Amino acid sequence: MTTLDDLPLRDDLRGRSPYGAPQAPVPVALNVNENTHGIPEVVAHDIVGSVAASIMGLNRYPDREFSELRRDFAAYLGHGLREENIWAANGSNEVLQQILLAFGGPGRTFLGFTPTYSMYPLLATGTSTRWIGRNRQDDFELSADYVSRVIGEESPDIVVLCSPNNPTGTPLTLDTVRAAYEASPGIVIVDEAYAEFSDPGTPSALELLPGRSRLIVSRTMSKAFAFAGARVGYLAADPAIADALRLVRLPYHLSALTQAAARAALRHSDAMLAVVDDIRTQRNRISRQLAALGYRPYRSGSNFVFFGGVDDTHATFRRLFDRGILIRDVGIDGHMRVTAGTETETTAFLDAMAALRS
Ligand code: PMP
Fold first, then answer.
1. Residue pair 194/301 in contact by the 8 Å Cβ criterion
2. Can you tell me which family this protein belongs to (predicted)?
3. Which residue's CA lies nearest to atom 1 of ligand 1?
């Protein structure tokens, strides 16, 4: 049998592991921060109609500039953004990859504050960019002073600030983002994949875009929009950033089917986001009840809770799995992460955790 070692693989990929969150058909999957509520039926029908209407045109390549979709994203985000400020790709993972292809690469560096989203170092490897992971502060927080100091020390080509941060849930203040931008010589990405779950009134880094041409705010339809399977991520930035990404994207990278589905979903953004309040309620319930059971949940502005105080993460994972519940062991000693599901799913998780304690 041929193994990877037999192939003429790039030296810097040897010994690396791919992204590998378990995918198992369990009744209660709370391990990849999806919106577990599913798509409202009326919205699903409209999406089907829009996708069906695009099918007769599939003999032609799709709009390479996905202009209408960009206009729709600009309208959704507000903040005075226009079509030319928006870019999109097949999930925000691809958006981030395109940013690294354009602004990273051999001899360049990409800095993030760990623990953070596990794809960042993998995207760095794939684009031959050197990843620099610097620790977060106590309780996984990041102050403006600390971020400025670290960026000053490392002088990275690209910085990523994940807010709220995956896997810890920690939101950042705009002061921290401003400080990162001022200290940074290069591109600053604020990954707001989970922004819609932040408590009402929490400001977005979108506010900081005017006058900051090196700042990029990345978003996705995979989380609050319950659209992970459609693979649609996007960003807002100075129009020159889109010009840079056009140099590295594959032509026609967003299929006509994807564009039609995303536009239909955006037409129903109120209905698609109607469950966000309920998810926040379940998140807060998880935090309260885990604390009551003696675990240590960290503050979360997201749709998941990161908690410490787990004696044996492998055993906890396994015992929950045996009850049909999947949560995430992120490889940090004594800590685990769980996504807030529907009320029923959340109850199943909390009951199982209580049973483990008794
Ligand atoms: N950023 C963060 C912080 C994430 O947690 C995720 C998904 N887990 C992504 C980006 C990528 O999401 P997608 O490619 O589905 O948009």
1. yes
2. Belongs to the class-II pyridoxal-phosphate-dependent aminotransferase family. Histidinol-phosphate aminotransferase subfamily.
3. 193
